[in-house]
């Protein structure tokens, strides 16, 4: 049961081996956060003479930014400047530091990493309307950004609260066993969560693992830390257009969990679309695949959210 859940939802987190057709369209960039931590990203220049906008790709938990290269290259071809990056402790943004020595958590990703990446994008592509495409955690953390007002529109991919009790029985049991059994045990032994060995993305800092478990076991996800680890947030301040895209076969972002998260954005202009894999000639999309090249047929729907930045 656990193997089935991991295979169906996490295998897409493997790093793609195919680089953009024109490697000159992208360049490596270093992002310095307010606490001086350095993140690694890649900037994709727009391939058209007249740029349409700038897009920040906010990654899912445990996803290296290289996972999004095909999607970023496609956006570049559509005329967008794009920045993809890895959060601290993940991939190239681990900076050679032993993972057990990295004390970061999800709040750090939202309050330090995302804002710094946004500032870097604005500096690299000045004067363009800015959109954020957030995948899973990259969508869930948008209200922690103090500079959120610089974002003109959002596209939220597989964004939900991830609340365990709203999942189907098999997925719920597998998730609870992973998060409440193996996670605390492995973190206690290793000092981090070794998710890579089960194909569940990159290994995670202990703080990220702890908050992920804490936030998924009750409704509201990030809301569970309001007033405690999160003293200030901006979810209710977001008024920009928000396009929520979720696959109908997503076992994590089920409709109840999507609604549970979107209620944190009461003043945003929200549109919701649930994508049926068969409508795009696909057998499955799941939680992880919408921004993978095999789901390229779905990507024009994302343009709806990017074009709403007007």
UniProtKB/TrEMBL annotation:
Record's keyword terms, sorted: Hydrolase
Domain AB hydrolase-1: 56-273
Superkingdom field: Bacteria
A single MF term (Gene Ontology): hydrolase activity
Record's signal peptide: none
This protein's record includes keyword Coiled coil: no
Keyword GTP-binding: no
Protein name listed in UniProt: Hydrolase, alpha/beta fold family
Species name: Marinobacter nauticus
């Amino acid at each position: 049961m656990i193997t089935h859940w991991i295979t169906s939802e996490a295998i897409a987190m493997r790093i793609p081996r195919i680089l953009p057709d024109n490697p000159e369209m992208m360049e490596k960039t270093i992002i310095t956060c307010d606490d001086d931590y350095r993140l690694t990203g890649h900037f994709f220049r727009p391939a058209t003479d007249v740029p349409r906008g700038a897009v920040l790709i906010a990654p899912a938990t445990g996803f290296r930014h290289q996972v999004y290269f095909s999607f970023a290259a496609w956006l570049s071809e559509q005329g967008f400047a794009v920045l993809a990056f890895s959060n601290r402790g993940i991939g190239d943004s681990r900076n050679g530091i032993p993972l057990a020595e990295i004390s970061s958590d999800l709040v750090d990703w939202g309050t330090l990493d995302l804002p710094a990446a946004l500032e870097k994008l604005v500096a690299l592509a000045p004067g363009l309307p800015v959109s954020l495409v957030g995948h899973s955690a990259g969508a869930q953390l948008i209200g922690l950004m103090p500079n959120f007002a610089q974002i003109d529109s959002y596209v939220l991919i597989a964004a939900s609260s991830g609340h365990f009790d709203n999942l189907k029985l098999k997925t719920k049991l597998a998730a609870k066993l992973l998060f409440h059994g193996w996670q605390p045990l492995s973190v206690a032994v290793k000092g981090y969560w070794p998710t890579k060995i089960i194909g569940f993305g990159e290994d995670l800092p202990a703080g990220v693992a702890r908050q992920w478990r804490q936030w998924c076991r009750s409704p509201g996800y990030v809301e569970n830390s309001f007033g405690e680890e999160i003293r200030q947030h901006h979810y209710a301040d977001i008024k920009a257009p928000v396009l929520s895209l979720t696959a109908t076969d997503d076992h994590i972002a089920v409709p109840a969990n999507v609604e549970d998260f979107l209620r944190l954005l009461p003043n945003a202009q929200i549109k919701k679309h649930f994508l049926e894999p068969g409508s795009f000639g696909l057998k499955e999309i799941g939680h992880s695949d919408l921004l993978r090249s095999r789901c390229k047929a779905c990507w024009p729907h994302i343009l709806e959210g990017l074009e709403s930045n007007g």
